[in-house]
């Protein structure tokens, strides 16, 4: 379900005109649809209900407290990758006992903090990390629940920067070494409790095959580990892709409705194909979706500041830069760009660029799009995941505001940063 649509020529999120939000809070601003987020979560939960799977929201995708609170109230678990993410999850009302902690570089302080908070499991990525967790747990007189992240060496068919399950990636432990590592934990690391097995092969997967291949490779091992060490869970990670690249719509409402059918990877297909492989394991199954929950539930609002016509190109210069949304620059990410107010069918092929002093600062290149003129607002679509959470203060630009829409009302869930925020913590030497 997507709740962004045109009504009387105005782009709306649920029942709120985005123009109203842009004019009230200014731009750039991220706007999220509560109902879309909840719908995506519930759809996945429902599809996986034969497994009774735990849906652990990947906090990194969009970590605003209000979004985390929404997920916590809905009954989500959380997939975290830092002490900071654990801290904000707890602050938002999330249960640390439902947090799994991934990442190759957990620090001693982070491990101690996670142990104090009683997280559900550390998903460890190396033997060295496991030994560190063991030592810290021993020094605290507690037992640390652990799982090993297995790298199944499958090709995820996604952008190289977000592929994680191949041998040459830094993530996880090679499949053929995992069982020896479990034996080492069992025999040599007395302060660890073996709780599960985890994998995550990449993000923005648009085909079911890599998931099937990875589960087929790893499930027999999960079964053996259950026999040997009584593991209780198998997490298959996140990675479910969304549709970003819709062609220019003839009619906007029809376009939005057709988005779903164009999706390469339906949740239902994901569930249908994986349930038969996972169910016989008799383990608690965890999934860690980020993008699938929030990606299409958020947009980035911007204003067109200037138009510049070069010899070969038309540039639409907007007030959202790569510091606000880095996906196009970093992953060649495609985001549709549409006006907040429709006016006729004037089309143009343009580069939509930001104000940052980098040639990589663009939201779209050579894009056929509606002709959005200086002074008019636009929305960069499908920006809910890895949008705000990857933003920075580069070029000393305050970070954008964030807004959550619920039906006909909306709430500011993050104030735009002020200039004072830009220098907070900086110190002038005597
Ligand atoms: N679990 C683990 C261990 C992960 O590393 C990730 C994402 C997820 C779950 C959630 O993956 P998702 O369901 O969102 O695909 N910044 C990039 C994506 C990086 C993903 C990192 N790990 C982007 O904007 O495309």
Please describe what this structure looks like.
The protein is globular. α6 links the parallel β8 (121-124) and β9. 32% of the residues lie in helices and 25% in strands. Strands 4, 14, 15, 16, 17, 18, 19, 20 and 21 form a nine-stranded mixed beta sheet that branches. The longest helix has 21 residues, at 209-229. α5 packs across α6 (127-140), α7 (175-188) runs parallel beside α8 (209-229) and α8 (209-229) packs parallel to α10 (267-278). The protein has helices spanning 18-25, 34-47, 65-74, 83-91, 108-117, 127-140, 175-188, 209-229, 252-262, 267-278, 291-294, 327-331, 419-423; strands at 4-7, 10-13, 16-17, 29-33, 54-58, 77-80, 99-101, 121-124, 144-151, 173-174, 192-198, 233-235, 284-287, 298-309, 314-318, 337-339, 347-353, 362-370, 377-380, 401-406, 409-414. It has 430 residues and is of the alpha/beta class.
Write the layout of secondary structure elements.
Layout: E1 4-7, E2 10-13, E3 16-17, H1 18-25, E4 29-33, H2 34-47, E5 54-58, H3 65-74, E6 77-80, H4 83-91, E7 99-101, H5 108-117, E8 121-124, H6 127-140, E9 144-151, E10 173-174, H7 175-188, E11 192-198, H8 209-229, E12 233-235, H9 252-262, H10 267-278, E13 284-287, H11 291-294, E14 298-309, E15 314-318, H12 327-331, E16 337-339, E17 347-353, E18 362-370, E19 377-380, E20 401-406, E21 409-414, H13 419-423
Parallel strand pairs: 4-20, 5-6, 5-13, 6-7, 7-8, 8-9, 9-10, 9-11, 11-12, 12-13, 15-17
Antiparallel strand pairs: 1-2, 2-3, 4-14, 14-15, 14-19, 16-19, 17-18, 20-21
Helix pairs in contact: 5-6, 7-8, 8-10
Bound molecules: ligand LLP.
Ligand LLP is lined by residues 58, 61, 79, 102, 162, 200, 203-204, 237-240, 288-292, 327, 331, 385-386, 390.
